[in-house]
Amino acid sequence: MGRSPCCDKVGLKKGPWTPEEDQKLLAYIEEHGHGSWRALPAKAGLQRCGKSCRLRWTNYLRPDIKRGKFSLQEEQTIIQLHALLGNRWSAIATHLPKRTDNEIKNYWNTHLKKRLAKMGIDPVTHKPKNDALLSSDGQNKNSANLSHMAQWESARLEAEARLVRESKLRSHSFQLGLIPPPSASSSSVPPPASASAQFIVNKTSANNWTGIGGDLESPTSTVTFSENNNNNNSAPPMMMSMIEFVGSSGSSDHQASLIKEEGENNNLQKDWNKLGLENSLSFTSSTLHHHDMAISMEAAAEGPWNPDESFRVNNSTMEEGFTNLLLNDSIGDRPSLSDSGKDSENSGGGDGGDSGSDYYQDNKNYWNSILNLVNSSPSTSPMF
DNA sequence: AATGAGCACAACCGCCCTTGG
DNA sequence: TCCAAGGGCGGTTGTGCTCAT
């Protein structure tokens, strides 16, 4: 479309940043904030284009960036979120505190993608590569359900990512003294986060939010423990790690009021409106219904989904599924190639007698673990 | 020791979306 | 409503390092 370049490239330096340049950029931003990126290089005395400065800052110099090896938990998160979101690195990054989208993308491309491929799992679809052979009507139906789930979660994550961005902006404005800090009375208002809309926010969690300027990590997707679960009343928190969703599909009023109650965050509602979720309740409802189906795997026996009933996901499935095969592979240095065949078989690629149901089961576990992850993810917002 | 392949990661490029005039 | 600027995002490239030969 012939957009003019973000800056005049003549005379501007490219390539690796020197420590001196880093220092200049850091010092300038610490003192003035970044303001307009385009104007920044001149003000900071850098022979760089504004975009380059922005990238250097966001991907490397920002103080809240964690560098170094990815933990197993982080690997798991990336794999699972990638299965759900695809190459939407920024959305994935919102669930990995202190990691940048660029870092995650690089790590995926250089490590995880290869590992998946090595194990005979298509890194794009996250299914065994011989999956095509397994297709049957039932499985296609299930795939459709999973696709709906993914769409819904994807939309939710988009909203969440946007809110994270907003909170970043707000935080930054505060740090520059542009907006007053939250008052003591309002500090119990949680940061804008989809958790407010999607989950019953644990009041304690909400109140524990330290606010901008305190602990910069803000919980967004807050897990609450089911109090009326008959079987788990006496279970310790870890054992009763059930994620409780709000049955928001019953009415838009329900959702709207929930948003008001939990955070009075009109922006959040706007986001949902923008995403067309509030006004497409049939979509939401049916998708949640599928969601529930996929989790309970009672695909054929469902009645009308009860909007009053929160549905719950058991976290134990986190231990299962393809992802853990991958992770185990990485932990134990198991011979992945030879095992991959086995794993693939066990995961549904095999030609055993009930491979179809195995596949079904593993698929269920896999997606359940993904959904668990997404819904229970701390999703801290890297402020700034 | 030299060298080439493979790997890891920082940085760049170009497209797209948002925003404000 | 249109348009341009700013910024975000995902894909790709460049560069330096490690290791095997």
Give a brief outline of the structure.
With 384 residues, the protein is mostly helical. It contains 16 helices and two strands. The longest helix is centred in the middle third of the chain and has 39 residues, at 137-175.
Could you explain how this protein is built, in words?
InterPro entries: Homeodomain-like_sf, Myb_dom, Myb_TF_plants, SANT/Myb. Keywords: Developmental protein, DNA-binding, Nucleus, Repeat, Transcription, Transcription regulation. It is found in: Nucleus. GO terms for molecular function: DNA binding. Residues 9-61, 62-116 form the HTH myb-type domain. The chain is mainly alpha-helical. The protein folds into 2 domains: 19-61, Orthogonal Bundle (Arc Repressor Mutant, subunit A), CATH 1.10.10; 74-316, no CATH class. Helices cover 54% and strands 2% of the residues. It is built from 16 helices and 2 strands. The chain has a two-stranded antiparallel sheet. The protein is elongated, with a radius of gyration of 23 Å. It starts with 18 loop residues before the first helix and ends in an 8-residue tail after the last helix. Mean pLDDT is 52; it is low at 1-8, 132-141, 172-323, 325-356 and 377-384.
Strand order of the largest sheet: 1-2
Q: What's the SSE pattern?
A: HHHHHHHHHHEHHHEHHH
The termini sit apart by 32 Å
Tell me the number of strands: 2
The overall number of domains is: 2
Global geometry: elongated
Give a quick account of the main beta sheet: strands, pairing sense, barrel closure. Answer: 2 strands, antiparallel
Instruction: Quickly count the helices.
Output: 16
Mean pLDDT: 52
Q: List the uncertain runs.
A: 1-8, 132-141, 172-323, 325-356, 377-384
User: Beta-strand percentage?
Assistant: under 5%
Radius of gyration: 23 Å
Helical proportion?
Answer: 40-55%
Classify the secondary structure makeup into a structural class: mainly alpha
Domain HTH myb-type: 9-61, 62-116
Main location: nucleus
Region (Disordered): 328-360
Domain Myb-like: 9-61, 62-112
